[in-house]
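Batch manifest, entry 17 of 40.
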Amino acid sequence: MTTLSERISQSAFDGSRLRVVLLLDLHEGAQQDFLEAYEHLRNQVASVPGHITDQLCQSIENPSQWLITSEWESAPPFLAWVNSEEHVKMVQPLHGCVRDTRSLRFSVLRETSNIASLTPEPPKGRLQANPRVGDGVVRHALTFTVKPGSESMVAEILAGYTSPEARVDDTTRLRRTSLFMHGNRVVRAVEVQGDLVAALRHISQQPEVRAVEEAINPYLEQDRDLSDPNSARVFFTRAALPAVHHVAAGGQQPDGIRRHALYYPAKEGCGMALARMLARQDELAADDASCPVAGSTIFQRDDVVVRMVDLRIPVDSDPMLSLGVRGPRKTAVLRRLIDTEVAGGLSNDREIVHFLERADMALITDRRAPGA
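Output type: structure tokens
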């Protein structure tokens, strides 16, 4: 009998097989160009480590609607590929053919096959062991850098805008937006109840948000033109900072919880291993009813790792707990995965406190929708 954990959780690190579903709506007359671009793309995807198979399907009811499904040995190799600069360049030829897209990602929990059709070779990867308990909230972040010297001006702009309308439609609403800065890096985390894509589209269309985006454009290190659909798509693809792990106690959270975001300077190529280690630590903390960590979300893309943590205690009252490294030899593991030239050493209490001070990102704004 399957037992559900009472805590709210999501994770890309449970080792289960991943099914990716990409829904596409093509422009009229673009089918042939799309097929040619897909043929080139699928040959490249087939060589990506962790990829098992993919299928291209066309709707029998509306030939302009297409579906690409792919299966992966686990989520990490897919995320490493889909968030890479190589992928951004690879899918560029598809953009001119597609009116709209939506990507869905699922861990494989159960599988039923026709026994007569089974092959001797077992499927790669394993099934998700148990279902997780969700809270109906999708968590996502965007990150980008601004020109050095402009940080205070950008912070003032980002802190001063009027909150957009929370309600998107009957099933989707914006619950919370938390915005932080670390040096010249901006991280904007959102919590959405319902459809993330619909919410992000809604936010981008609000006059207050459009004015802010225009105001910070001159300060961005990466140029963009949000009035150009292709430029906007490339920018937001590169800026995406997916939530790879989340855990929190179920039920209503009490008052007095303070949200922090910690920036971990990963060594080159160690971002995913660092995120996985922090996720494991947060899972252990969630099993301890007395632990003052009310919840945490880990965002990771390449070597950018941000851990957003909700604490019932001041962040500096237990530095090891706040950093997610409480326990034997955990600081030694962290030291192997971070760039100590940037973070400093972690060999004694003073250095750990100093690292926490540097990792704790500046809170620019943290806004909750009424009732969230």
